[in-house]
């Protein structure tokens, strides 16, 4: 057992992989042979004593029981390291098959090299080929039988030398044993025969008691019951996973609760309380496992309740976890480090979730509405406005960089050229911005220089817009989290339309001043929650209104060229997105991602600030992209039809790859179009700045006229928390 532990614990080295496999194979076979010889000794000895009706000495009984312990220890060793054993067995099987194939290959060459033709020689060669083909696959019982039959024919006519045949036979025997290692070890370590030799147990237990050092062996009496109870509770709680057949009519039913109705058992000068023992085991197990994985606290709590209901066990409450687990990254932490957050997390527009871009751990953190809602509940709703203020400060800095990029002479001159070009050719191009022009812009920007990481200026500009979009996505999530928190808090109020005034009720009853004060506070809280759950603050509108006037000023005329840079930006984004998604299937997943809707959100926000939705729509950019890719896809399909006649496989393979690439690009553009269309809804893309101003003016006039018609007073706007 120590030897096996030592070999299995040793780290496998690639340069000595074959040697490690041989060592593991030998130790597994040695363990099985020990189990076989011990089992045979026990069975033979006990059955001979019984058959000859001779009494067994106490020393013999103790020795045989010690052998039984050793047998179960070998079984436990294989069971304890079953994961490593299972992993090693598949590698050892392949290694043995490789050795056998090498031996057969040498013999086959010898048969082929002999020019004398005969039907018997042909049969031998066919048998060797059959053995080779059968060994190239999983080592099932049927395949091994076929190999054995094939080799019985293939070894005729001295195809193998004596020094070759014996190693091959040894390899095949090892292959048989290793392929069925688990079943064979289980069979040899099965001690059911002890039922017919029950008389030895009292002597064995006396010996265990007298030798106190071996008292630990007694635990095996109750451990099986503990594990059976735990297994039953787990399977009952996870019935939705359908882990096994729980139908009592098919698999039978065992009522383990009867064990707990037994009185404590007196064992020499000790009492063994089965109920207390199992309860302690379950308490300890559930507590330890909850501390390891706090997110499973609800499952173990349910298992505790089930243990009480089904078996009548009085379980101890673990009081874990001590706080909510659905908080994730704290709002306060994100707010203070908003610049780091927007660069390290990716936004998903549809699921309204943020996913960590990369991590040193084996998992990625996510942030969703529930996390934000729990965080708001911890800190209070006041944190929402503070978060918006921090985001405003962050956006100010980012828009300064945005303005600098747009003002750069290299960029500005190219954009002005593109605007002039589009105006000249739009009639010939059916008012669609040419795809080739966007590609040309991308290539031109790349010539200006790239960073050590291989990024062009346009790549960095795309990242800037994605970060602005991520900030807006975070604001959207804050608003949703606030509404979620308010609706959770107000859900216990029966009717939001008819909330009684507790202050008036307390006055009617003439209760104490403290009660009146408490009722006043309750009314205030209910009023706040009702208002907050009914309407959320329009943070998007606030962030549009605060930046839009500055963006639309004459001194920032260079920003008016933004709409014409969107096509090359989308092209750049799609290339980046495809590259990120392809990395998901690679072993090295650095830079892999499946979503980045911050870009669509950022483009929609900036277009709104510049009031350029109509200008961008006039480019009909996504129509142009769709037509371009559909045209190329049809051209490739036509070529495929032509080339299929010539049956040039390499050319057809190239065309299939081309078509696949075109399909992926078109799909990515359509996904971006859908995301951008969704993001535009948040910023009321249906209205221009002039129309919004007109609507605002009309509302103010209506308010004024309503105020004049009433008691001559104008109602003040409600203060929004």
TrEMBL record:
Designated name of the protein: WASH complex subunit 4
Organism: Ailuropoda melanoleuca
Domain of life: Eukaryota
Domain WASH complex subunit 7 central residues, every copy: 219-497
Pfam family, any one: WASH-7_mid
Basic and acidic residues composition-biased segments: 691-703
InterPro entries linked: WASH-4_N, WASH-7_C, WASH-7_central, WASH7
Name of the encoding gene: WASHC4
Region annotated Disordered, chain positions: 691-721
Any Gene Ontology biological process: endosomal transport
Domain WASH complex subunit 4 N-terminal positions: 1-191
Gene Ontology CC annotations of this record: endosome; WASH complex
Domain WASH complex subunit 7 C-terminal as annotated: residue spans: 515-684
